[in-house]
Structures are given as C-alpha cells and as structure tokens.
C-alpha cells in the first residue's frame, strides 16, 4: 500500500490479515496510528512505514507493537521534519520499542542531540541500524551506549545541516561492527578516522567515509584542504577492510607511509578515491604504490575519477607498448583488478609514469572519459570487455586497438570523441579492430556518413547508438547487421 494517500490507520484495520508477514505503508501521508492499528498481525515480520509524517514523540506508545512482537524489520525512517531547536536533548520513546526483542533491522530518524534510553538495549538480536532524515549535531561517547553489542551494520548518512562534533569512543558500544557507512555526514575525515580506534586489528567489511569533509564546514582547525599523514591513518591502516570509500574529502596530497600503507593489504577489494584533488602517481610515492599494488592481491575495483590536480592540458592518457621499466617509472597493478575508473580526471603536473596492466590480468572494465593525465596505461595483455572513452581522442583509441587487434571488447562507449573527423581522415581504420563488439555507442561525434564496409567486421553487433550526429538517413552500411536488436538514431 505504498505510494498512496493514507493519513490514518484505525483500530483493527488489518484484523482479517492474520497470515500477513510483510506490510508496506511507505510514501503515504500518515500522521496517526491508533494503539490497536496492528491488532491481529501476529505473524508480521516486516513493517515499513517510512517516508510519512509520523512524529516519534507523539505517535508511538507501549501498546503499538504488542501485537507484532515477532517483527524482524522495522523501518520508520524519513518521518521527522527538520527541527527548529538544535540544542535540546531528544529522548527517543524506548518504551514503545523495547518489546521488539526479535528485531534484526531498525531504520529510524536521527535527531540533533539524541538520547537513546535503556529500552533499546532489549533488542538484543538487532544486526542493522540505519539512520535517516539526519539532523545530528553531536555524536558523543554516550550516544549509542544503550544499544546492544549485536549491531553489525551502522548507517548514518547525509547529516549535512550542521558540523557533526564527534567523540573518539562513540562507536565503542559496537565491537562486532562489520559495516560503517557515514557517507555525506559532515564530521571531517580526520575525525571520522579517529572513530575507528576501537577496531584496530579487526576485520571490517565496509568503511564508507565518502564526503564526510565539505567546504561548508571548512575551518582553521579542520581545513577542507587535507594532507594525509601517517598519524591520520594510524587506526585505519591496522584494519582488515574489504571495501573502503574515502571519496570527495578534499585530499590534495599524501605523505609517504600514509594513504596507501596498510597492515592487511590482502583484505582490500574495492577502493574509491574519487572526487579529491591529489596526484595518484608521483616519484616520491612510487615505492608506496608499488608495495600497495603488490600486496592488494584481491583488489577488484579502483575508482580515481573526478580528481583535478590542475587545468593545464598538455598531454592526455595514453596507451603504450614499447617500454622498459629500467628507464621509466612504473607502477604494476594487481592481476586481480577487474575495474578501473579514471574518468573526469585532470592531472598534468606530475612526471610521466607507466601504469602497467600485467599479463594474465583480470581487467575487463576501463572508463577513461574526459581524462587528461600524464600517466601512460601500459597493457602487457589486453582483456578489456567494456571500454568507455567519452570525450577522448580518436588517436588514443586507435593506438590502443592497433596494439591489440585480436581483442575481446564487447562494449565500447565513445561519445563526443571526434569519431566523425577520424572517419573522414582515416575511413575504417579503427573499426577493423572491433570484430568482437556487441554494443557500440558513438553518439555526439559529428558523423555525417559511413564508408562502405565499416560494420563488416562487427558480426555480433546487437546494440548501436548514433544519437546526435549529422546523419541525413539511416546508413545503408547497417543493413547487413542481422543480429541488431536496438538501433538508436535520434
């Protein structure tokens, strides 16, 4: 019953649904639940009444959840309006929730100065706590002290109205934590990393501290522009973490022995550093990076997109085959790496360094859209299946394909890349290397004609997008593509 206009739930409204196990009432206009509104739902396991206007202080009583003590999931997020008063403690109605001893998932709003009383400690089976409509201004050592130690996943996202002051032992009540997601909560990266000290030498699946620093909380003591030091990383480096997100935090540089120095590199699987402003590859940190990538034997994805170091465009990302690491600076990526995103990255102030994709690699996805860097991508063996190079030069793609004519590419996205100019000057030169392609997007390229035989090598082509070009009619050269399932020529 989500996405309707319900405003009230009266007594025994669901009395005839005694076998009901899941009830969804989200995205309504509910502001009132009677004490007996859930009567008869003894088998109910999931209750979602998120995104309504149910006031935590006024709606819930001790009687509300008596009929549904078997609930395992309760979602009441996005109900509380933005408060006027940010300086008064807010006491949560623990007397309404303490009967829910089978609960494993709780979604609830976070007020500016929350006070969770002893009733929350009765939910001893709870595994996930997710806060939304977050108005938090202070995360103290006492904030979560009433919660049970069973919590494994804690989400506290998008607390952006005020700077969130933190105390270092705020997460101490959660010794079994596996997922920490504070993305978009403005507490500053330095303070967020301080919260990790209870987890030194433990295993954590996910730490998401993306965009916890912001210009809106810039100050002399906590500047948005951040140099990563070994001291800032002292707790994080000891943790065996699988998924790490430090994106959009104003990072402009890192000292040797800091950002890429971990005690358990073998744990890391996904790393996001997008939206910062630092040069990944530098001569002073070359040893750090080689040690990092040598040790990250299970790393699957690396996101270094949207990093802008300067705006001087002299050279662009380049594919290269002839090299010798005895004469050039090289960083060898792990063979386990499957996905690299360096899109929208401008970094031309550093030295020319080879980023080596080794033999027997697992790299199947590369996004180098709108990228201008002095780094040379060196493929010892080419196994890409998806290549996105929107805004890239024709010559870059041609040189890459030329070195690996018998490639395994299945999807190519190459919008706004002057393909039209390349066709006028070189005809089918590039397309003869795309024999394995199944999906091709060459929109926005000023293409006004196709030369004969351009699609002949692409026998498996099923998806073609030619949007926003200069074609006067559907090219006859496409008529032999018998496997085509989708053609977009708008």
TrEMBL record:
Source organism: Mytilus coruscus (Sea mussel)
Protein name per its UniProtKB record: LINGO
One Pfam family per UniProt: LRR_8
Entry keywords, A to Z: Leucine-rich repeat, Repeat, Signal
GO CC terms: extracellular matrix; extracellular space
Top-level taxonomic group: Eukaryota
This protein's record includes keyword Repeat: yes
Lineage of the organism: Eukaryota, Metazoa, Spiralia, Lophotrochozoa, Mollusca
PROSITE patterns, per the entry: LRR
